[in-house]
Design goal:
Elements (H helix, E strand, L loop, with lengths): L4 H6 L2 H7 L8 H7 L8 H13 L3 H9 L7 H4 L5 H9 L7 H18 L17 H11 L4 H24 L4 H13 L20 H17 L3 E4 L5 E5 L8 E7 L13 H16 L6 E7 L12 H6 L18 H7 L17 E9 L4 H5 L3 E7 L1 E10 L3 E2 L11 H19 L3 E3 L3 E2 L7 E2 L2 E10 L2 H22 L2 E10 L2 E2 L2 H12 L7 E4 L4 H5 L5 E6 L16 H22 L1
Parallel strand pairs: 3-4, 3-5, 5-16, 6-15
Antiparallel strand pairs: 1-2, 2-4, 6-14, 6-16, 7-12, 7-13, 8-11, 9-12, 10-12
Length: about 600
């Protein structure tokens, strides 16, 4: 019989702890301490409480929890002394059927890992989809994590233990994240389309209007029509637009969506999660035969990353009338102009002005996005409420000193351009950290024609500075640029600096942020508010209508723009449920 939250809430403390036996390997103290937080509002709330008990435990207790887990394909598996839960998990991943070579490889990794960290390698082998990782994925993860810093790896082991516990809880409660699975599967299927040169390497790259890009658009349109959208088409710039009409023809529209293009060798969820989560909501509305008192428009933006052409936010920009006709003459690395690419794709350039939206007809814009950072992952929180999309400013610069002999130039006579930039980098790091949520990065650093035995005479660099609001960003930039001037003056150098980009911050509209908060809270999930350090399509829509975003936790330290980018079916399920709650609550407001 499946366990229920009500059953857990009404049982005695000992009975309740016994009901959770096996969730955390040989560690009943976790369930017992969690009982102090009853009543649990939902299964998601229970999961969070259990994770919090572990995160606030003493390090000795955390290490005890880690060492309570068996090695993968280790002696316990061979001797058949694994717990029923571990036996099921290792079997589902195929570890009970290793070839001699695979078994030897895993045993060697186990030995190396234990020698480095002093505890067993822990991996949620049923994976982010719950159906089991392949042996290849397990071995590759093993090989990657053995080089982690010990403190980081201890935390990563605990995060994997929480994922193991989450899946075991789903089993106990007979819960299947069906909507999360659907969203997961759509993303996996879409990732089969990738640009030439990357497909052969097994890498995901989808850039504007390539064959892979157009195949993605066609597949999304097909899915939209299949699951019940009233209309779905590709517009004049290649955006995929699906509409689920409201109960009345004159109803206003809620706009949502994100982008389906990717960076080169990128991840499967950046952008695309924000298309498929609302699509799952439409599918459920259609199944229920239900209409909302407003229309619901989901847009898969054709271009956000600026990879093939220098036209970032082309897709969302076109919807607010910001398509720049000068872009049409840009050429890609193969000499193909944007105009030629659009004509080849069958897009009608003369129709671009027609796709501009009238803000008066829209309620606002909301976007779901994978976090693309480590914050939610480290805090064991599945969803985050975005308070603002950071404003940013970028510079490219050059410090000019004097190249000289590395052996004969005394240290107090040098005019070292690279040292000046190194000093600037450290200052920028410290200055940004003072604000807490500002960031500053020197991502490009070059000594042209540098030699091992020459004091650098020139150093080229970039500066990227971001903050949740424009005054904070401007104060950061002012201080960093003033320090650059002071460093050069003190060292007898000169410098050049060119501003290459400036983007205004996009604070979430208070009413829409509160709608996300109400939706998330209704799931029993902890409310966590955070700024977005990355840019999003919501920044463009912010210029003409209110907007707010919801972040979804990523795994693998929240890494993004990387093949390791991932999230779990359970977190995607919560994102769909939060979006459904937002739609339901908004419908009540409109009635």
């Amino acid at each position: 019989m499946a366990l229920t939250v009500d059953q857990l809430n009404t049982a005695s403390p000992d009975e309740a702890a016994n009901l959770l036996e096996g969730v955390y390997e040989h560690s009943p103290w976790i369930a017992r301490r969690a009982m102090a937080s009853r009543p649990f509002r939902s299964l998601a709330h229970l999961k969070e409480v259990l994770a919090h008990v572990v995160s606030t435990a003493e390090q000795k207790e955390q290490l005890g929890l880690i060492t309570a887990h068996p090695e993968l394909a280790g002696k316990a598996m061979v001797s058949k002394t694994l717990t029923a839960e571990s036996s099921h998990e290792q079997g589902k991943a195929g570890l009970t059927e290793c070839t001699p070579e695979e078994f030897e490889k895993i045993q060697k990794l186990n030995s190396d890992y234990n020698a480095r960290f002093g505890f067993p390698f822990i991996l949620a082998v049923r994976g982010p989809r719950g159906t089991g990782l392949s042996k290849r994925e397990i071995i590759e993860t093993f090989e990657r994590r053995v080089f982690n810093h010990p403190e980081f790896e201890r935390a990563e082991a605990l995060r994997n233990i929480h994922r193991i516990a989450e899946i075991r809880l789903n089993d106990k409660f007979a819960v299947e994240p069906t909507l999360g699975n659907e969203v997961w599967d759509w993303q996996e299927q879409l990732s089969k389309h990738t640009d030439p040169g990357y497909a052969e390497k097994g890498q995901l790259t989808v850039t504007y209007l390539t064959d892979a890009h157009r195949a993605c658009a066609a597949q999304i349109v097909g899915w939209m029509r299949e699951i019940g959208f009233d209309s779905a088409h590709i517009d004049a710039v290649g955006n995929v637009v699906g509409r689920y009409e409201g109960a009345t023809p004159d109803a206003k529209t809620l706009l949502t969506g994100s982008h389906f293009d990717t960076v080169r060798n990128g991840g499967k969820y950046d952008g695309r999660l924000g298309i498929f989560v609302p699509m799952a909501c439409v599918r459920e509305l259609k199944k229920q035969g239900r209409r909302l008192p407003f229309a619901f428009e989901v847009v898969g933006f054709a271009e956000e990353e600026g990879q093939r052409y220098k036209a970032t936010f082309l897709g969302s920009g076109a919807l607010i009338g910001h398509f720049d006709n000068k872009w049409l003459d840009q050429k890609d690395v193969d000499g193909i102009s944007m105009r030629e690419a659009m004509q080849h794709a069958g897009l009608k350039l003369e129709d671009i002005p027609k796709i501009q939206r009238d803000p008066a007809k829209y309620l606002g814009f909301v976007e779901v996005h994978i976090e693309q950072g480590p914050v939610l992952n480290e805090l064991d929180i599945p969803l985050g409420i975005v308070t603002s999309i950071n404003g940013g400013v970028r510079y490219v610069g050059e410090v000019i000193g004097m190249a000289s002999h590395a052996g004969t130039t005394p240290m107090d006579r040098r005019r070292d351009a690279a040292c000046a930039v190194a000093e600037l980098i450290l200052f920028a790091e410290k200055r940004a950290a003072k604000d807490g949520d500002s960031v500053a990065t020197v991502g490009m650093l070059q000594v042209p024609n540098g030699s091992i035995n020459v004091v650098p005479g020139v150093c080229k660099f970039s500066l990227d500075m971001r903050a949740p609001n424009d005054p904070q960003r401007d104060a950061l930039a002012k201080d960093v640029l003033a320090e650059l001037a002071a460093i050069c003056e003190r060292r007898g150098l000169r410098h050049t600096l060119e501003e290459s980009m400036r983007a205004a911050a996009a604070p979430s509209a208070p009413a829409w942020q509160q709608r996300w908060e109400k939706a998330v809270d209704s799931l029993g999930v902890q409310l966590f508010r955070m700024p977005s350090g990355a840019g999003h399509d919501a920044m463009k829509l912010h210029e003409v209508m209110p907007q707010a975003m919801l972040f979804v936790r990523g795994i693998n330290s929240g890494i993004s723009h990387n093949p390791l980018e991932s999230s779990t079916n359970d977190d995607m399920q919560l994102a769909v449920e939060a979006f459904q709650k937002l739609l339901d609550n908004l419908a009540l407001e409109q009635d």
